[in-house]
Amino acid sequence: xxxxILLMTDSYKxxxxxxxxxxxxxxxxxxxxRGGQFDxxxxxxxxxxxxxxxxxxxxxxxxxxxxxxxxxQHFGNGNLFNRSAWxxxxxxxxxxxxxxxxxxxxxxxxxxxxxxxxxxxxxxxCYWLTNxxxxxxxxxxxxxxxxxxxxxxxxxxxxxxxxTGGLEGLDFKLHDFGFRGVSSVESxxxxxxxxxxxxxxxxxxxxxxxxQKYYNTSEVVGFSVxxxxxxxxxxxxxxxxxxxxxxxxxxxxxxxxxxVSDSYDIYHACEHIWGEQLKEQVLARDxxxxxxxxxxxxxxxxxxxxxxxxxxxxxxxxxQGYKVLHPKxxxxxxxxxxxxxxxxxxxxxxxxxxxxxxxxxxxxxGLLQKLNRDTQKFAFKCSYxxxxxxxxxxxxxxxxxxxxxxxxxxxxxxxxxAQYQTVSLSTPGEDHLQTVFELGKLQKEWTFEEVRQNVL
Length: 456
Ligand code: AOY
What we know:
Blueprint: H1 11-14, E1 24-33, E2 40-42, H2 46-54, H3 61-75, H4 83-92, E3 99-104, E4 109-111, E5 117-121, H5 129-132, H6 134-137, H7 141-164, E6 174-176, H8 185-196, H9 206-214, E7 226-227, H10 230-234, H11 241-251, E8 257-260, H12 266-277, H13 279-284, E9 289-292, H14 298-313, E10 315-317, E11 323-325, E12 329-333, H15 339-351, E13 359-363, H16 365-368, E14 378-387, E15 390-393, E16 411-416, E17 419-424, E18 433-438, E19 441-442, H17 448-455
Parallel strand pairs: 6-13, 7-8, 8-9, 9-12, 12-13
Antiparallel strand pairs: 1-5, 1-14, 2-4, 3-5, 3-18, 10-11, 14-15, 16-17, 18-19
Residues 175, 177, 203, 224-225, 227, 258, 290, 292, 332, 334, 362, 364 line the site of (3E)-3-[(phenylamino)methylidene]oxan-2-one.
């Protein structure tokens, strides 16, 4: 193992064990979204952190020594580190963490301001351990925020598809182009997996291996097709643009093929190359050609391309009265795409009598990177403690920001007429938080199929 749990925290937390009140024997904290872009969130990714970083014998003498050496230089003080507290866990629990973590089922859609996860120490001597893990556990914000964004884009796309066409294509309406734009391969795995809860199209291959490994899945749950990039088109030279496109039709005689067509002049490419020179070959081909513009103002370009392609290849009018291009031709917009761009494009298409069936979207940085912990205001706070066995509610309520109020006491996620609500643990009724981790062991494992089911 290359990582060291003692080092997977913020420096200041190393000093916190001395700061709790005397005889403190329990610290209980919870995780919530306090609001942000959307008013409900999709909880996802905890199982990865539990499996990768928290399960089993995560403390060893070597890790304690490594941390001790780093801390004494980092703080310029060899005494801040609570070495004996870690050696206590190493000896008493064979290096396994005496904690209980409860969480809502992964994939669940929960309104903001509800408890999503709780964590508490199981050994009274380890009161300091609960919040030592805050830093790592709060990183669940990332896969949860990607899953939330992808979920809400699907909801929005659903409305446009229902109003202007069909729902058959919805699973592939938003393709993940984000691998190159994320901060790390680990982020690509987590974020790419989060997107695949809601959709089935991805180019982020890392997500497929991530899901198989961490979500107990043998299947491949995301799909893609043959597609060009600019190098494979422009390497033919500007005078051979038609040959480059013709080669695509010939190399991939069946199924969907996507061709990026803006290398020189997207309008010329659609009107004269696809729409005239290669038209018969496109129509004779056994599959769908997807034309991908990749520059310019997306709204302006798409509306113009729809008109050009409608003129050249023809269209039909569907039951709802919207125009649908010839079935052999579609558009893929993957440049400048975020939630509002998709909404604006589908809105403008509807206003111009074009069905949402004509288009699919690719989203890269907008899907996997253009978000942060504040996008959904994820926070982790202590709500309960025990001092010498006496329970007390713990909270913050700053006059300077009522948005930063925290909950009090031990919490339960209840559900009344399909509405989640956070109540005191002592309130009678079912708790939708279930124990997922206890004393070093994973207690509940979700498959990816189950995660997808839990969204619905
Ligand atoms: N992929 C559908 C399949 C994927 C891509 C990936 C950055 C695809 C393009 C396409 O058709 O055009 C990363 C940009 C594009």
